[in-house]
């Protein structure tokens, strides 16, 4: 799991990076502008943003990311304790909020909750009788298991993580391939066709003129 950490407190940042790197891949920056660039270059699984940083604020950053259809789950960390900042954080698209000072175990539990809710664990229950091993690219049911190709696995995981909305063909192309390797939309349609063979048509819906949605 890849985490982008935006935190300008050097002491806290060092503590968080050391702690999180025991289990996750962490990229840390002090700058809102740098965080925006990194979010465009790398497909992160989780954002952890401080509200106040020297060149802006995490709330404005998240608003901008959400305007680009970036639905990456986000936890805000802040020294503010008033409800006004809490409200602004959630209105910007935040998924959770943790107030300084906090115990690292509290952060762990909030991350675990995000992982369960957004299917970020290695083993994901994508249907009542179907488990998805995202690390080994295996779909498991009570009676069988099927290996997926890397791209099939990436596509299924992306659709599942964004199951609350419709995902366009262009968005899948941008998130599953590098820019200089990006194929045509036919490659996405082929992936969807293959996944439906494994899952059944009822789990990946074609929303005419818009894209696909996981059910």
TrEMBL record:
<feature type="modified residue" description="4-aspartylphosphate">
    <location>
        <position position="50"/>
    </location>
</feature>
<feature type="DNA-binding region" description="OmpR/PhoB-type">
    <location>
        <begin position="121"/>
        <end position="215"/>
    </location>
</feature>
<dbReference type="Pfam" id="PF00486">
    <property type="entry name" value="Trans_reg_C"/>
</dbReference>
<dbReference type="GO" id="GO:0000976">
    <property type="term" value="F:transcription cis-regulatory region binding"/>
</dbReference>
<dbReference type="InterPro" id="IPR001867">
    <property type="entry name" value="OmpR/PhoB-type_DNA-bd"/>
</dbReference>
<keyword id="KW-0597">Phosphoprotein</keyword>
<keyword id="KW-0804">Transcription</keyword>
<dbReference type="Pfam" id="PF00072">
    <property type="entry name" value="Response_reg"/>
</dbReference>
<dbReference type="InterPro" id="IPR036388">
    <property type="entry name" value="WH-like_DNA-bd_sf"/>
</dbReference>
<dbReference type="InterPro" id="IPR001789">
    <property type="entry name" value="Sig_transdc_resp-reg_receiver"/>
</dbReference>
<feature type="domain" description="Response regulatory">
    <location>
        <begin position="2"/>
        <end position="115"/>
    </location>
</feature>
<feature type="domain" description="OmpR/PhoB-type">
    <location>
        <begin position="121"/>
        <end position="215"/>
    </location>
</feature>
<keyword id="KW-0238">DNA-binding</keyword>
<keyword id="KW-0902">Two-component regulatory system</keyword>
<dbReference type="GO" id="GO:0000156">
    <property type="term" value="F:phosphorelay response regulator activity"/>
</dbReference>
<dbReference type="GO" id="GO:0005829">
    <property type="term" value="C:cytosol"/>
</dbReference>
<dbReference type="InterPro" id="IPR011006">
    <property type="entry name" value="CheY-like_superfamily"/>
</dbReference>
<keyword id="KW-0805">Transcription regulation</keyword>
<dbReference type="GO" id="GO:0032993">
    <property type="term" value="C:protein-DNA complex"/>
</dbReference>
<dbReference type="InterPro" id="IPR039420">
    <property type="entry name" value="WalR-like"/>
</dbReference>
<protein>
    <submittedName>
        <fullName>Two-component response regulator</fullName>
    </submittedName>
</protein>
<dbReference type="GO" id="GO:0006355">
    <property type="term" value="P:regulation of DNA-templated transcription"/>
</dbReference>
<dbReference type="InterPro" id="IPR016032">
    <property type="entry name" value="Sig_transdc_resp-reg_C-effctor"/>
</dbReference>
């Amino acid at each position: 799991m890849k985490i982008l950490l935006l935190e300008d407190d050097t002491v806290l940042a060092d503590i968080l990076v050391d702690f999180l790197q025991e289990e996750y891949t962490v990229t840390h920056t002090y700058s809102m502008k740098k965080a925006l660039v990194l979010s465009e270059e790398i497909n992160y699984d989780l954002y952890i943003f401080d509200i106040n940083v020297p060149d802006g604020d995490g709330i404005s950053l998240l608003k901008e990311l959400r305007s680009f259809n970036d639905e990456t789950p986000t936890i805000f960390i802040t020294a503010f304790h008033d409800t006004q900042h809490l409200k602004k954080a959630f209105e910007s698209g935040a998924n959770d909020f943790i107030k300084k000072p906090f115990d690292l175990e509290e952060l762990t539990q909030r991350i675990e909750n995000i992982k369960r809710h957004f299917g970020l664990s290695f083993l994901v229950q994508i249907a009542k009788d179907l488990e998805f091993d995202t690390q080994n690219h295996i779909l498991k049911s009570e009676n069988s298991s099927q290996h997926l190709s890397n791209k099939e696995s990436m596509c299924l995981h992306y659709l599942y993580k964004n199951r609350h909305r419709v995902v366009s063909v262009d968005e899948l192309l941008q998130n599953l391939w590098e820019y200089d390797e990006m194929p045509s939309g036919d490659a996405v349609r082929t992936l969807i066709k293959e996944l439906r063979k494994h899952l059944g048509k009822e789990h990946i819906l074609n929303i005419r003129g818009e894209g696909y949605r996981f059910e």
